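Bench notes, afternoon.
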Amino acid sequence: MAKVTSKKENVRSMFNSIAKRYDFLNHLLSMGIDRLWRKRLVKMLVEHNPETVLDVATGTADLAIAVTKYSKAKITGIDIAEEMVNIGRMKIASLNLNQQIELKVADSENIPFSDNAFDAAIVAFGVRNFETLNKGLSEMNRVLKSGGMIAVLEFSRPRHFPVRNLYMFYFRYILPSLGRMISGDKSAYTYLPDSVKQFPDGSDFLQHLIETGFIRTTEKRLSFGIATIYTGFKA
């Protein structure tokens, strides 16, 4: 009988396999718009002046690095994919940011920090990869101080013609082909549109935030709804 692997193990393996091409592909396939989306999240974050920030599913640390351009906060990034973290560490060292950013290999659904440890928790394009969404969100809530902010940037599905139709065509046909050609991974960029399709975006995601202890939840749709920033605060 073939061994059945968990979503978590599949995600770890997949991102380890594409780590060296991940940044290049991210910026190419989004035509650079992902940088602007991260900047929007960071500007929303710094309005609340956090001193300690947890960057969940940090990947190669693009979001953590973006925070340093606007804040002196101490940032800790975690990710389950060792190769992604290794590349992130090299980027951080090259930018002389080792005193502000620290990366750890760790599970977003079993965060290795004590309760009430951070002023804010952020994640970009990572929550849809959680094996159990509410478990990951509950862990983020646990490590936040009372009143602490969560900010989540994630792909969403445009609602209106013709953007919705163009977006779905690009995600279903063009993105997987380009991703496979450049990364050499046959599954990674097929997984992306499938995971976006299955993700509970919009008000459905806000409900998950509420269920896991967050209040004052909001959503900010970006680029005609291609991506959305969700925010909330620990009660």
